[in-house]
Amino acid sequence: GIGFYGRGWTGVTQDAPGGTATGPAAGTYEQGIEDYKVLKTSCPATGTVAGTAYAHCGSNWWSYDTPATIAGKMAWAKNQGLGGAFFWEFSGDTSNGELVNAISSNL
Fold it and tell me: What does DSSP assign to residue 55?
């Protein structure tokens, strides 16, 4: 499954994964969760770890999927002989469907 949102923390001082935080980052709907369509421009991904993108912006650190990370996950799913993929919260995608298109075109 692919989340069309990211998970974020605040009070972060390092770029790389594995640091400390003081709590969840502010989100549109609840703390620590933000839509991909917002994160794409407000905190663009700067790296990947374990097949998921991450970004450090100010004192916030976010992890989320991008079209590129989704392509990698779909390649893995095909190689495993899996029959499909799912996603949740369609409203987190961009208006032109970047994430759903990455699933569709790579599965």
Answer: E
- Name beta bridge partners: 10: 23, 60
**CATH of residue 42:** 3.10.50.10
> Do 10 and 24 contact (CB within 8 A), yes or no?
yes
For residues 53 and 96, what is the distance between their CA atoms, to the nearest angstrom? 20
Q: Is residue 105 part of a domain?
A: yes
If you average pLDDT over every residue of the chain, what do you get?
Answer: 96
Closest CA to 29 of 38, 17, 21: 38
- Is 55 inside any structural domain? no
Question: Identity (one letter) of the amino acid at 21?
Answer: A
Task: Identify which of 51, 47, 46, 52 has the alpha carbon closest to the alpha carbon of residue 5.
Answer: 52
Whether the model pTM is above 0.85:
yes
Structural domain boundaries enclosing 4: 1-48+60-107
Helix, strand or coil for residue 94? coil
Strands 5-10 and 33-35, by their bridges, are antiparallel
